[in-house]
């Protein structure tokens, strides 16, 4: 059954494979936009919280659900957590049924608010079970984040890895490309301006510019790209490389994406007064992803390209 209205599409997870934590079963799914969700009622039940409040994201009143409105807890609930609580996500599970849920991170944020309330002396013996459950849940995900656990439970881990590999393959050329100018001169002009360097540095660039290029360009383009490029195009003893990294990118996908990223960075540079301000903006606009391929898959890609490029 296709989703209706503002219902989101589930791409991983099934009702018969819940997330088990603290003796509770939590229905969990990955949506098409990669949001990891936990069923609304399961989340509330896992913490033995009071139910109530609206259950539909279509409620225009923006009513605060009871489970975050309780007097002992409310002072410790952040504005972001309150906003999420007011707007549960509507999605369709594989059985065709409509469900309401919350982003998985909300469970951890809620648990931390409960623990903070306890440490501040706001809880009583009535909330003892709630505090105990919150502590168990936070401890369960202390080493492995909740996103990683949900990806494993729902089977999205394998889907994600396959997708990352396909994206990486589309970026990397099977034959080294002929050199042409990819980086606009304005990119280097803006670096000089933000660092208050002499204008000549836009041509005679200090080595640190290469470090900037790796960190702000190649590391923020797609996961795992930079280490592969570093292996295919290693640094020589004199600190230079035989080729340019962009010569190893495809003309169909890799290089156009690189150019678009460069012009995006230039726009942020123009809006910045100094390098520190630019760093804040770039981390928001182009955050580095923590998603990575397993090392054997990276090695396979590198070995394949080396055999073709040599």
Summarize the SSE layout with pairings.
Layout: E1 8-12, E2 19-21, E3 24-26, E4 28-31, E5 36-39, H1 40-46, H2 66-69, H3 79-86, E6 89-92, E7 98-103, H4 104-119, H5 128-140, H6 146-154, H7 156-171, H8 185-195, H9 208-221, H10 225-232, H11 254-270, H12 275-285, H13 295-309
Parallel strand pairs: 1-6
Antiparallel strand pairs: 1-4, 2-3, 4-5, 5-7, 6-7
Helix pairs in contact: 4-5, 6-7, 8-11, 9-11
Walk me through this protein's architecture:
The protein has 310 residues and is of the alpha+beta class. Helix content is 48%, strand content 9%. The protein contains 13 helices and seven strands. A five-stranded mixed beta barrel has the order 1-4-5-7-6. A two-stranded antiparallel ribbon has the order 2-3. A hairpin with a 5-residue loop joins β6 and β7 (98-103).
Write a concise keyword list for the protein shown above.
two-stranded antiparallel sheet; 310 residues
Shape: elongated
Quote the beta fraction.
5-15%
By secondary-structure content and strand pairing, the structural class works out as: alpha+beta
Q: What is the makeup of the main sheet?
A: 5 strands, mixed, barrel
Strand order of the largest sheet: 1-4-5-7-6
Order of helices and strands: EEEEEHHHEEHHHHHHHHHH
Q: What is the distance, rounded to the nearest whole angstrom, between the alpha carbons of the first and last residues? A: 51 Å
Radius of gyration: 24 Å
Mean pLDDT reading = 87
pLDDT below 50 for ≥5 consecutive residues: which ranges?
A: 52-61
Task: State the oligomer.
Answer: single chain
Helix content: 40-55%
Number of strands: 7
Helical segment count: 13
């Amino acid at each position: 059954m296709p989703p209706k209205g503002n219902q989101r599409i589930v791409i991983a997870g099934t009702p018969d494979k819940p997330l088990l934590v603290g003796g509770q079963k939590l229905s969990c799914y990955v949506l098409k936009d990669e949001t990891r969700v936990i069923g609304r009622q399961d989340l509330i039940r896992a913490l033995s919280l009071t139910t109530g409040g609206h259950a539909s994201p279509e409620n225009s009143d923006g009513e605060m659900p009871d489970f975050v409105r309780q007097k002992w807890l409310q002072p410790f609930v952040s504005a972001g957590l309150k906003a999420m609580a007011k707007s549960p996500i509507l999605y369709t599970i594989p059985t065709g049924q409509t469900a309401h849920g919350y982003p998985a991170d909300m469970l951890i944020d809620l648990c931390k608010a409960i623990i903070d309330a306890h440490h501040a002396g706001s809880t009583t013996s009535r909330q003892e079970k709630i505090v105990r459950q919150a502590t168990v849940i936070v401890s369960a995900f202390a080493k492995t984040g909740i996103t990683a656990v949900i990806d494993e439970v729902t089977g999205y881990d394998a889907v994600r890895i396959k997708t990352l590999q396909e994206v990486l393959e589309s970026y990397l050329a099977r034959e080294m490309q002929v050199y042409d100018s990819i980086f606009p001169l304005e990119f280097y002009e803006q670096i000089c301006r933000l660092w208050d360097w002499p204008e000549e540095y836009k041509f005679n660039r200090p080595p640190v510019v290469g470090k900037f290029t790796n960190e702000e360009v190649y590391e923020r383009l797609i996961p795992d790209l930079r280490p592969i490029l570093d292996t295919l195009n290693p640094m020589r003893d004199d600190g230079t490389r035989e080729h340019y990294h962009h010569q190893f990118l495809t003309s169909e996908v890799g290089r156009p994406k690189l150019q678009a990223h460069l012009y995006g960075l230039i726009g942020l540079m123009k809006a910045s007064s100094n390098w520190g301000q630019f760093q804040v903006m770039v981390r928001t606009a182009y955050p580095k992803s923590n998603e990575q391929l397993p090392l054997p898959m990276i090695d396979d890609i590198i070995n394949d390209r080396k055999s073709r490029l040599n």
